[in-house]
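Entry:
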Amino acid sequence: MELSIYDIIVGPVVSNKAYRLHQTLKQITLQVHPEANKTLVAQAMNKLFNVKVESVRIIVRKGKQRISRSRNVSVDNLRKIAIVKLKKGQDMNLFGDAAMAVEHANAEQSARVQSNN
């Protein structure tokens, strides 16, 4: 099966760990097609988002096997996650305004704690 660059990247992974990686280490966490490899992910990032990629790490999460009461076995889908590290000077606003909202909420909370003391 031939993959196009639009098929390789499925979407971003939105979690606390992905947000922390993006803020501290400038690494982007993406869900990718199960047949994609590191070079395809790097090429897709370069062509779709115009960013230079330093390295790509891939995690394969195999589907969990479940057995129902009637002894039917079903398996969840395989998930492939790529953690992409961008070169210095490159940036990609993956979380958008959500990042500013979180920082604003943290600042307000710390201000309230200081005013109470």
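Residues 5-66+76-91 form a domain with the Alpha-Beta Plaits fold (CATH 3.30.70.330).
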